[in-house]
Model the fold of this input.
Amino acid sequence: MAEAVGTQSIAHHWSPVTAPSDTKIEVDGVSFDALLGRVGAGAREMVAAATQAVVKRFGDRGSCVLVGQGARVVFSTEHPTLADLPIDLARYPEIAAAVERREVVVIEDVHASALLEHVALQLPPHLGAVAVVPLVAGETCLGVILVQSRERRTMTADDVRAAGLEGRLAGTLLQLQFGSSLGSDLRRSATPISVPAVSGDGPVRTAGAAMMVAPTEFRRKNPSRGRVLIGEDDREQALALRSILVDEDYDVALATDGAQVVRLAQKLRPDLILLDVHMPVLSGFDALEELVGDARTRDLPILIVSGADDMLPRVRELKLDTVDFLRKPFSLMELLARVDRSLNQAAAREHLRNEASIDDLTGLGNPRYLRERLSLEQSRIARYGTHSAIVMVDVDKLKQINDRHGHVVGSRILREIGQTLRREIRDTDLAARYGGDEFVVLLPHTTAAEACAFAERVLAYLRRLRPEGIDVSLSMGVAALEGSGGQSIDLVFAQADAAAYRAKRSGGSRVCVYDPSVDMLMAMRPEQPTEKVDPQSRRRNGQERDRER
Done:
């Protein structure tokens, strides 16, 4: 009986032809022995042996995908306990082609492949080549072994022919031994299997060693799809989720308990958190409570993942726009769709917040956002009695710069000043543009001396910078509230304003700290209610300020 062998076509497919009787096919007897040696063993052992044999020929990592009732990944050399992960064949045209033709498909350069052209934007950047070997039993294709390589790879005709035979042998043995119960047998026997390394001549690794320590840092500066923090105490599930998202070009960090989720969210500021409910140290809901109660993390989108029946109404009771729910078990496409939706909704919320609170020219906060932050700071001071400082910044002679060099240059200078302030402040601080030539910096937990040092540092940097080749200086006023003492943050604002006015009248290009003996307050009395003390109402009108310049 003639053997089925392959000849390469221009499209990188390998078509079965009838081999002449004198054709000799070079086959690795070790891989055949490994397959035959698994006869009588469990389905996972046979699938693992077949996958490892093909990976050895073609790449770095491999998976076995069954296609009986929907395509499902039933084994992975990277995650050996993975047993039942649904995938959409529309995203894997190389698998669909191999199943349809029952032929080996090889693509030596995925980024130059016509077959993958319509999914090119979805290909991970670290993928170079793929090979797909169908598991054929008679006229039936049970599934495929998909092998991926990080680099472009030349695949020889002998390897392709031998892999085709290995696929037919594996498919036939699996069909004879397990028949229609293959999928259920694979799920039942989902226990770790020793998987040897296939890259280079390195040492053999066990499954435990192959699954590296869960990464608790993001590894890429600018992932195209975003940065996701996964909170999941089940190591296998966490690593499987990470593998899926990394393949979709997300950057992923892992946390194994609720407290670690909170710490990493505060440190890393992810674009999205996938949060399991049942975790040690802090439960998912306890972690959620801390995240939404912290100004650093309250706006982060969170996708709660759970199989509990009562979880959806509990999430809805929270009435939080940033929190969504995904029920286990879920399909691959559902997971990716919900992740994408959560990120898009978060981006839309951020856009609306920016429009409402960000100054278009400088990218700093606007007066509305400043008032909101002053109100929050007042509440914090009233509760904890801690100190806080405000720096008022007035650009010297901006009108003269505009008259001499034009308003475009003046706008560029304001933008440079905004960038300088943004670079110097901490995450807990706020810099805002308050008027045409005025900026305000709110410095929580800061004394007058510390705020003065900050202001001197900004002033010195701007002198050296000379934006647009022009000598630019600032008049800066500093005031601080050290202990509650019955004062309000609005009064501190007025004091900083008065100090900046003194700096301006003294010739500019200096920092003045509020001195009650010389600074005249243009403010309401301290006992007046905060809501009636609008700092902007205390500013001098533009014409008077222009005359002072």
Remarks:
- The longest helix spans residues 332-357.
